[in-house]
Write a structure and sequence with these properties.
The chain is of the alpha/beta class. The protein is about 20% helix and about 20% strand. It has one domain: Purple Acid Phosphatase, chain A, domain 2 (4-Layer Sandwich), CATH 3.60.21.10. It has helices spanning about 15-25, 85-95, 115-125, 130, 145-155, 200-205, 240-250; strands at about 30-35, 45-50, 70-75, 100-105, 165-170, 170-175, 180-185, 185-190, 195, 215-220, 255, 265, 270-275, 290-295. The N and C termini lie far apart (about 40 Å). Bound molecules: guanosine-5'-monophosphate and manganese (II) ion (MN) (3 copies). One manganese (II) ion (MN) binds near residues 77, 108, 109 and 220.
Length: about 300
């Protein structure tokens, strides 16, 4: 099927990213790069980015120092379920970070950030008590959250007002030092959490809103093939996100999280992919922030 707008095709195996990647990986390589803490201050003609993700309201348990830099990025899942206190606590923590710019996107755990999720959740609460538990009876660990917590989370009004210490991106772009940074929270549907969309056409329609000339792309989900290998051996990344990133957007860096066990840096030889998940598979915030330095565009 051809999407006329951007000529990105839906892969026939879009619903089976493991099989899709088996096919795609016949014609492209993946290079693994080591995560190295910065050993010297950033050069004058470069901008230092410090990336984290998936801190899940556990920043108080972090045992490492967050390296200083010009731009801090958090790629979503900063809470367990998007409760107001969690958002306020995260905002306080952000406020203590030294970075000049702090950029945050939401993930599937930020229930209160997704108006469509709130709508569906409230509707299911109103119409059938049988459905209210569905989010808890799924495979994603609920991190000790009870139905009451989730109910409380979805009742938070205008939650974005509590993120005062960062630039919050949601299908939007910010330009810093002439570097274009775009953030989007959507991920392929899994257990019906926030910002879930069915794979294929609907995921692609979200990626189609990413502008062409982005330098640093931030998504919550990985693309297929990079940082998306789940413990069970299957791949959970989005096939059309990889196609969009490689064929159209071509950012220099693609930062994401979501699949905690996929933490690390890879490259296809052109784009650098960073899974910055701070929490590991057991929700312990063990993984170091990923740092990269980007040359300032000419004339800045
Ligand atoms: P989170 O609940 O923090 O979004 O994701 C935590 C873990 O759930 C991931 O590290 C991964 O093991 C699993 N997970 C999340 N999304 C998916 C998915 O789409 N497919 C599969 N198989 N596992 C997922
Ligand atoms: Mn997570
Ligand atoms: Mn580009
Ligand atoms: Mn997630």
């Amino acid at each position: 099927m051809l999407n006329m707008q951007n000529n990105i095709e839906i892969h026939p195996l879009t619903n089976n990213p493991t099989a899709a990647w088996r096919e795609i990986s016949q014609t492209q390589k993946v290079f693994k790069l080591n995560v190295k803490p910065p050993c010297k201050p950033v050069d004058n003609d470069k901008i230092r980015f410090v990336c984290m993700s998936d801190t899940h309201s556990l920043t108080h348990n972090i045992k490492f120092d967050v390296p200083d830099g010009d731009v801090f990025i958090h790629a979503g899942d900063f809470t367990k379920c998007g409760q107001q206190e969690e958002v306020q606590e995260f905002n306080r923590w952000l406020g203590e970070l030294p970075h000049k710019y702090k950029i945050v996107i939401a993930g599937n755990h930020e229930l209160s950030f997704d108006p469509t999720f709130i709508h569906i959740f409230k509707k299911s609460c109103d119409h059938s008590s049988r459905h209210t538990g569905s989010i808890l009876e799924n495979e994603i660990p609920t991190l000790g959250m009870q139905k009451d917590d989730l109910n409380e989370a979805v009742r938070v009004v205008n939650v974005k007002q509590y993120l005062t210490n960062c630039i919050y991106l949601e299908d939007s772009l910010v330009e810093i030092y002439g570097i274009k940074i775009y953030g989007t929270p959507w991920q392929p549907e899994f257990c019906k959490w926030a910002f879930n969309v069915p794979r294929g056409e609907q995921c692609l329609s979200k990626w189609n809103t990413i502008p062409d000339n982005v330098d640093v792309l931030i998504t919550h989900t990985p693309p297929v093939g990079h940082g998306d290998l789940v413990c069970s051996g299957i791949r959970a990344g989005c096939v059309e996100l990889l196609t969009t990133v490689q064929q159209r957007v071509k950012p220099k860096y693609h930062v994401f999280g979501h699949i905690h066990e996929g933490y690390g840096i890879t490259s296809d030889g052109k784009i650098i992919y960073i899974n910055a998940s701070t929490c590991d598979i057991n929700y312990i915030p063990n993984n170091l922030p990923v740092v990269f330095d980007m040359p300032l565009p000419a004339g800045i």
